[in-house]
Amino acid sequence: MKTENPPDILCQTAKLPWIEFGAGIHYKVLRTSAETGDWTVIFRCAKGSGFPPHYHHGAGEYLMLEGVMDYRAGKAVAGDYGYEPLGVYHESTTFPEDSELLFTNHGPVAFVNPDMSISMILDWKFFAEKQAEHAAGAA
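The structure corresponding to this sequence follows.
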């Protein structure tokens, strides 16, 4: 009995476009999964940029490729790996120099306003839709 293998994914990241996220941050989408809610991106963050306060509604993992990220756990530098558990709150995440990081989240991230109401949700669907919009605009 022959079984079919699911397709492998090979991202030639040098050929992927940078998509603007805003305020000095761009990303490349490597993978999104409606099945699991996972999403993997490379973030490119300009010196002085940062992410607003947010909650992780899924655990996250990152590998610093270059630069420095300063956040609740400390200063992550090129080569550092970090794990961010489900439910963690990050009040401030900043980049004191030009930086890149590989980031996988196993669920959504909710950016919050000062009153803790949700201002934006980052999840697999956000990245899949933005990637499709960008591809349609480039065609």
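The mean pLDDT is 93.
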